[in-house]
Amino acid sequence: MDINTSSELAFNAIKQSFNNYKNFIKQNPIIASEIESALRWISYLITATKLNNSHIVSELLYSCSSLLSLLNDTILRKSYNIKINANSVVENLELVLTFIEYIQVFSEFTAYRVYGLVGKWVIVSVIQITKVIIRLILLLKYNQGLQRHQLIPALDRSRDLSLAADSPPNGLHSASSSASVTEDEDIESATFKLKRTGRVLRTIESAPPRTQRTWLSPQDNFNIKRILEKQKRTALPSDLTDLQIIGEILHILKPVLHLTSLAGFGPKSWTPYLLSLGLDVTSLRLLSNPPNKMWNLNERIELTQRSFSLLLYLMRSPFYDNHTKERILIVLRFMVNHIPIFGRLIRPIIEYLPEWQKTYFYVWSV
Questions:
Q1: Residues 228 and 219: beta-carbon distance below 8 Å
Q2: Are strands 200-202 and 191-193 parallel, antiparallel or unpaired?
C-alpha cells in the first residue's frame, strides 16, 4: 500500500467519523449541551484545586467547551437552516472573531508559560489587533452597525430549534415537533378552564414571582417570547449616524489604544486606566445621540451591557489595588469569621481573588 492510498484511507476515515458525529449532534442536541456544561463545571472545579498549573488546565477545558459549543451550534444551525447573517463573508468573519474570543485567555496563559512576559504581551497584542481589524471591517465595509461583544450568541437548543424553519431537514422534524409538544404540555399544566364560563386561568403553582406577573395568559406570554426571540434572530443592524460611527470606532479601538498606553506609561500608571474609561464613556455618549434612536432588541441589550461594564473598572488596576481590594477583603473576612457556613466557600475566593483579578479583569477584554 503506497503513501497516497494510506493517506486517502485515513482522510476517508476522519471524514466518516465527522459525519457520524454530525448525525449524533443533529439527533441529540440536548445531550450535546449537557456534555458542554459538564466540561465547564470540570473547569470550575479544577480552578478551585491547588494543583500546579490548575488555572491553565481549567482555561484549556473552558476553551474546549466553548469551541465545542460553537462547533455544535454551527452544525445545528446548518441543519435547521438558521442563518447568523445573510452575507456569508460577514458570517465567516464573525465565526473567526468568536473563535479568537474563546481561545484568548488560554493563549495568553500558554504564551506566558512558554515564552514569559514578553511572549504574553506579543500574543495579547496580536489578538487584539486582529480583533480590531475584523471589527472595523464589519463596521465600515459591511455596515454591521453596533457590534455585540459576543457576535455569535449561543444557540438555545430547546427553544431556537423549535422556532426555526417550519420545514426542517429530514430526520429533524421529530426533534422540533417534540419541543413544540413539550411547550404545549407545559402551558396546559400551568392553566385550568372554568367549567361554567370556559375562562382559562393560571394555576397557583405556576404563578411567576410577584414582580414578574402580568395579566397575560401563559399562552400569550409564550407567544410574546417567541416573537422577541424571532426579532433577536432576524433583526437587521440599525443605521448609525456619523457621530455614532465615531463612538463605535472608539469602542473598537479602545483595546489597542489601552495597550499602547500601557507600553508607554507602564501597568502601574493611571493614564491607561483613565484613557480606557474615558473612551468607554465618550463612546456611550456618542452612541446615545440622538437619545430617541430606535435600536433593535440586540442593540439595546448590548448598550445596556456596555453601561453596566463600567462597574468592572472597580475591579481593574490601579483602582482595584488602591481602593477596591482592601474593602472586598474586609467584607469576605468578616463573612468567614462570623458566618461559619460560608467559611469553606469564601476562603478559596480570598485565596484566588488576586489571580482572578489579574486574569479576567483586563480592560481590553470587554
A1: no
A2: antiparallel
- Residue 279 to residue 296: CA distance in whole angstroms: 24
Short-list 310, 317, 323, CA closest to 354:
317
Residues facing residue 192 across a β-bridge: 201
Dist CA 365 CA 100 (whole Å) = 12
Paired strand residues for 200 = 193
Where are the domains positioned within the chain?
173-234, 238-366
Question: Residue 318: CB partners within 8 Å, gap ≥ 6?
Answer: 268, 269, 270, 273
Q: Are 63 and 103 in contact (CB under 8 A)?
A: yes
Mean pLDDT by 10 residues, the chain (366 residues): 74 89 90 90 75 77 92 90 84 93 90 90 93 95 88 77 54 42 53 70 60 56 56 73 94 94 90 95 92 84 92 91 90 83 76 78 66
